[in-house]
UniProtKB/TrEMBL annotation:
It comes from Leptospira idonii. It comes from the Bacteria. Residues 299-379 form the HRDC domain. One of its GO terms (biological process) is nucleobase-containing compound metabolic process. This is Ribonuclease D.
């Protein structure tokens, strides 16, 4: 196919109607979105890019109040929709516009199944087309209007290569007997409903160098993060843009007086932050608590099952010589063990992962949770990469970690 980086800006209802005439004739659409998430607490879709028949349409939802004309295209099972990291884009489009999706392909999932060295869009484009995508606009503010030409060119290139890349990946997936697994994951991603996240919008465990703080300092960091998160919600601003992590760390380490806090954070926020810094806390946070995640409050029996499930996952990873990102997460394993399914249909009904995973991982996972042997159930699984390549990649990762440490 011809790769075209030019674009057609669709920023009015009439322009959308004209674009839909061509889009309705398409059998393949390559889709991407640009969001405000780097700047706002509550992200929203600011652009929808659709590449079709060599034409790049950049649709501006901030200028067009009604996008329902796109809905039949996304839901049409006869039109293939190609994404890179479909989960992120599809959830955002469901959240903001209520779209539903059928017949999806994801080049990021495919890149992992095909064991490419990296799964980023820029790497995949360079791997298949020897083209280096610019990252200059990666953190651009997509809410600002008018958009600049360099922003639009950047947005157009995100979809320009997806169709040709997918066609090559599809052929390789079929050749390596991985296509049905990939297709099932795509279907699961397309069907997964958007659920608004509740609770804190941050993780103490991910705060920079949190293990190097004392237990009391960690408690203070947590209180400052809660304060910042609430302020970010009120003004709809990305949390790190309210107060950056370095300044919060400095405040906890140096214990500044109220005047210095006001100098650093402003009059109102400085006074509140000072109060949080000098408050008495009876519940310091030990390093061991950082590894705990929401939902991992397991009783003794559940904890044993969780350990068995993690050992099962490690066994599958070694047999298939694959990355952990393609296997059930801790969160998914916890949902399963807490629900305690007794057969595959009960496991399938949980809608935790794809039908392929239920059929191919389910029997051995249920056996592991019941304390039974399961190695014989894993013998028919297809290896993702050669043993030599798997060992080499693990070694490279370990060496890199040692250098970073």
């Amino acid at each position: 196919m011809q790769i075209n980086s030019n674009y057609i800006l669709v920023d009015s209802p009439k322009a959308l109607d004209l674009a839909l005439i061509n889009l309705r004739q398409s059998k393949i659409l390559s889709i991407d979105t640009e969001s405000s998430g780097y700047y706002t607490y509550y992200p929203r879709v600011c652009l929808i890019q659709i590449n079709s028949n060599g034409k790049n349409y950049i649709i501006d939802p901030l200028k067009i109040p009604d996008l329902k004309g796109l809905s039949p295209l996304f839901a049409d099972p006869n039109i293939l929709k190609i994404f890179h990291s479909a989960q992120d884009d599809i959830k955002a489009l469901k959240r903001d516009f209520g779209f539903q999706f059928k017949n999806v392909a994801d080049t990021m999932i495919s890149s992992r199944l095909l064991s490419l060295e990296q799964s980023s869009l820029s790497f995949v484009v360079e791997f298949y087309h020897q083209v280096t995508l610019s990252k200059v606009e990666q953190k651009s503010n997509w809410e600002i209007r008018p958009l600049q030409k360099q922003q639009l060119r950047y947005a157009a290139l995100d979809t320009a290569y997806l169709e040709s890349i997918w066609l090559k990946m599809e052929e390789e997936l079929k050749r390596r007997n991985l296509y049905e697994e990939a297709k099932s994951d795509f279907e699961f991603t397309a069907a997964e409903e958007y659920v608004a996240k509740e609770g804190e919008g941050f993780s103490l465990a991910k705060f920079p160098d949190i293990v190097n703080f004392t237990p009391l300092e960690r408690r203070k960091i947590l209180e400052l993060l809660r304060y910042r998160d609430e302020k970010a919600k009120k003004i709809n601003k990305a949390s790190f843009r309210v107060f950056n992590n370095d300044k919060l760390s400095q405040a906890v380490k140096e214990q500044p007086n109220e005047g210095k806090c006001i100098e650093w954070f402003g009059k109102k926020d400085g006074s509140e932050i000072y109060k949080l810094l000098v408050s008495e806390y009876n519940d310091p946070i030990e390093a061991s608590e950082l590894s705990k995640r929401h939902g991992e409050d397991l009783n003794e029996e559940e904890d044993k099952k969780f350990e068995s499930a993690k050992k099962w996952r490690l066994r599958v990873m070694r047999i298939r010589r694959m990355e952990h990102s393609l296997l059930p997460s801790n969160k998914q394993l916890i949902i399963i063990l807490k629900s305690n399914p007794s057969n595959l249909e009960e496991l399938r009904a949980l809608k935790v992962f794809s039908d392929w995973k239920v059929d191919n991982y389910g029997p051995s996972l249920l056996a592991a949770l019941s304390g039974l042997h399961y190695d014989s159930m894993l013998n028919r699984l297809v290896a993702i990469r050669s043993k030599e390549a798997f060992v080499a990649k693990r070694r490279k990762k370990q060496n890199f970690s040692q250098k970073e440490g």
